[in-house]
Amino acid sequence: MSCSDLESALDFYTGQLGFRLDLIYPADAPRVVELSGYGIRVRLERNQDSQRSTDSEWKTGRAGMQYRDLVPDRLGGRFIASHIRIPEGGPVPDYVHHHGIEFQMIYCYRGWVKVVYEDQGPPFVLEAGDCVLQPPHIRHRVLECSDQMEVIEAGSPAEHETHVDHDMELPTSEIDENRDFGGQRFVRHQSSKAKWFPGPYDGFEARDTGIGDATSGLVSVLIVRPSGPIQSAVILCEAGFVFTFVLQGSITLQQKNQSAQVFAANDAFVTSAGLPATIVDNSDNLEFLQVISKLSPH
Fold first, then answer.
1. Is the pTM of this model over 0.85?
2. Based on CB atoms within 10 Å of each CB, which residue in 11, 61, 83, 184 is the most buried?
3. Is 1.10.10.10 the CATH number for 54-192?
4. Which letter, b or e, does each residue of 193-221 get, where b requires 16 or more Cβ atoms within 10 Å of its Cβ?
5. Does domain 194-293 match CATH 3.40.50.620?
């Protein structure tokens, strides 16, 4: 069924009629939901002529979370990066769910968020600077968060289904930290325990989240900061692309035949094998998140 106000329709079916939500997508701006109840299934689709207003860069998505798109073209649907926030802390109206994805990571940017994952033990808190790799179809749930909580989410493909699991209770009784989920392992990276190492560019150091090993090299995630004077550092990948989000400070990039461009905190950019970028300047307090992917950018 087609509807002009998908959010109100969803509230009506679940809150007043007693249907249960089974599927929703995309998470950042839901367009389709599937529900079940009384022996029937219902599919609701938002009218194409009732698109959300583009007056604000923030929009309300799944479970009341607010989303800001960091890669407007989404690399032709291949990749999505979202800046997600919850202004008011407390319990989050989430549910046990899983995603039909090839890759997905969450980096806690500001505040904290309490989460729980299938076979990974009791709930834990992601502090600012921590991140997780969410392998394909791992069941999980967001439980509560601080005021002004913000995370950076990156994943592929750009539009993917979120499935609700009505039967599983989290945490699970079993703990299997090395369980394989679609060829990947769950990763919890804690910044307080992480070590910095030289590279990946001259004059910079980084801490590795361990996501590269857990995805067999498909995607690596680093947090990078300057360690000394830059030496014409080049952001280059042999295949795929590099997504960069500036966490703090500023960085100045130069691409071939283009004017130098400054990126400050909350800004993001993508470079690919055919479009490398040279770091020509940066602030002393610069720190940025990089997702280095071997996924095709198209």
1. yes
2. 184
3. no
4. ebeeeeebbebbbbbbbbbbebbeebbbb
5. no
